[in-house]
Amino acid sequence: MLTGLITLLLLVITFSFAVGAQSGTVLKNGADRLVQLQKADGGWAWPLTSPPGTPSPPNTIGPIAKGLAEAYLYTNDPAHQAALIKVGAFLLTKRNNFSPSDGYLAATLDKILGGNTYTNHVLNYFYGPLAAGTYKRSGDATLYTTEKYVNRIRTVRSGSQANMAAWDIGIGLVGAASVGADTSAWIAGTKAKINELDGNNYYAVIGLAGAIYGLAFVHEDFDPTAGQFASASNLTDLANILAGNQITSGGFTWWFNYIEAGEEAIQETAYSLLALYAVSPTTYLSNILRARDYLISVQLSTGGWENYPFYHDGENNEVTGEALWAIGFLAQEKYKLTYTAGTGGTISGTSPQTVYYGNSGSQVTAVPATGYHFVSWSDGSTTNPRTDTNVSANITVNASFAPTLPETKDSCKNSGWKNVLRADGSAFKNQGDCIQYFNTGK
User: Fold this and answer.
1) How far apart are the C-alpha atoms of 111 and 92, rounded to whole Å?
2) What is the CATH number that goes with domain 2-332?
3) Is the pLDDT of residue 13 over 90?
4) What is the pLDDT of residue 101?
5) Following DSSP, what letter does each residue of 97-139 receive, concatenated?
6) Is 177 exposed, middle or buried (0-12, 13-18, 19+ CB in 10 A)?
7) What is the pLDDT of residues 308-337, one digit of tens each?
8) 51, burial (CB in 10 Å: exposed 0-12, middle 13-18, buried 19+)
9) Mean pLDDT across 434-440
10) What's the average model confidence in pLDDT over 75-97?
11) Are strands 252-253 and 264-265 parallel, antiparallel or unpaired?
C-alpha cells in the first residue's frame, strides 16, 4: 500500500510541472475515448461498455456529454462535434425520462451547434410541464410540479445515498438556470438538502460540492440552519469547509474529513473544482489548480478515468465526462489585463493582454516622460516593471506619474533644468528660471 501511495504522489508532482502544456492533450485523449465508446443511439453505456443493441441509460448522458462538449470547445475536433450531434439526437428523443442534468446539456449543445433546438426541447417537454404540474415520468402515474419532482429526488436518495440528493438537486439547479427555467423550487430543495447533509454518511463531500455549485451558479447565498453545517453563515463558509476536504495530492476525499492519501475520488474532485470556482476563482485559486493537476495526473492510458484511482475501481464513462468537464472548463477561462498611463508617462509592453486562468501575464513597464517619475499603479502596487502572476480576475490598472522637482540648485545646473519641472508640471524656460523657482517657489 505504501508503495502505491508514493507512486501516486510522485505522479501528481511530475505532472504538475507540465500541466499547462498538457491540458490540450489530456482533453483530446479524453474526448477521443468518449467518441470511441459512444453507442449507436448517441449515448454511452454505464459504467463502460454494454452489448451492441443495448439502449444507453438516459440519466448519464448529461455529465458525459458535458465533458465531451467542454473538451470540444478546446480541441475544435470535428469528430468530437459529430459525437455531440449524435448525443443531441438522443436528447431529442426524451419525453418522460428526463434527468436534472439535461438542462445544462441542452444549453451547452445550443452554444456549440447554434440555435435553440435543445433548449426549446427541454423547456417544452420537461421544465414547462413541471411548471404547469403536468409532467409525468415513465412508469409513474404522478403528475409532477417542480416542487414535487425535487422532493421526489430528496426521498428517493435515501440510506447510504441520502447525501447524493444534495448533489442531484444542486446540479438540477444548474440545469434549470442554464435554460432559463424557474429555479425557485430547485433553490429551496438545494438549501433543504444542505441542512440534511450528514458527514457521518457516504457522499457528504460530493453532496456539498453539488449544492454549493448550484447556489453559486445562480448567485444565491445561504446560511444553514440545521445539520452538519449549521455553524456556517454563508456560502463562503460552506466553500471553506469543502476546501478543507482536499488532500495533499490535490484530489478531494470521498469521505467527509477523511483527509488521507489514497482516498481521492474523481467525482468529488471535479465537482469541488467547479463549486469553488463558482464561489470565488481568486480565493480558491490554489485549491482549484491543485484539483485540476490531480485530475490530469491520474488520467488512464485509455484517455478515460476511474473514480477511485488508488483502488483501481475501473474506468467509468460518467467519471470521464466529469473529469473532462472540470479540466475543459478551466482551460477556457481567460481574463483581460489592461494597463494605461496617466499624464507624464507611457506604457511599454503589451496592453491589453489575454491570460488564461492561473497563468501569468507578460511584463509591462510604466515609462515616465522627461521631467516625470513613476509613482504607483492604481491598485496600490509600486512594482515597476510589473508582471501579474496567477491571474484569476480581470485587471485594469493605471500608472500615475508626478513631476520631478528640483531638489537642489545643482538640479538646475548645466542641462539639468531640462529634466525637472514645476509642481504643476510646467517646464522651465532656462537655467535661471529653474534656480529662481528653487529659491522662491515661483
Assistant:
1) 16
2) 1.50.10.10
3) no
4) 98
5) ---TTHHHHHHHHHHHH-SSHHHHHHIIIIIHHHHHT-EE-TT
6) buried
7) 999 999 999 999 999 999 999 999 999 999
8) exposed
9) 84
10) 98
11) antiparallel
- The pLDDT confidence band at residue 360, using thresholds 50, 70 and 90, is very high
Query: Measured between alpha carbons, how far is 357 from 375 in angstroms, rounded to an integer?
Result: 29
Domain ranges (residues) in the chain: 2-332, 334-440
Residue 408 C-alpha cell reads as: 537642489
For residue 411, pLDDT over 90 is answered with: no
Q: What is the Rg, in whole angstroms, of the alpha carbon atoms belonging to the chain? A: 28
The Cβ-side half-sphere exposure at 400, using a 13 Å CA radius, reads 9
Check whether the bond before 63 is cis (ω within 30° of 0).
no
For 337, list phi and psi in degrees, rounded to 5. Answer: -110, 120
Q: Are 83 and 44 in contact (CB under 8 A)?
A: no
The dihedrals phi and psi of 372, each to the nearest 5 degrees, come to -120, 160
pLDDT of residue 199: 95
Torsion of CA 338, 343, 344, 346, to 10 degrees: 20
- Asked if omega into 385 is within 30° of 0 (cis), the reply is yes
Report pLDDT digits (tens) over 234-254.
Answer: 999 999 999 999 999 999 999
Amino acid identity of residue 423, one-letter, is A
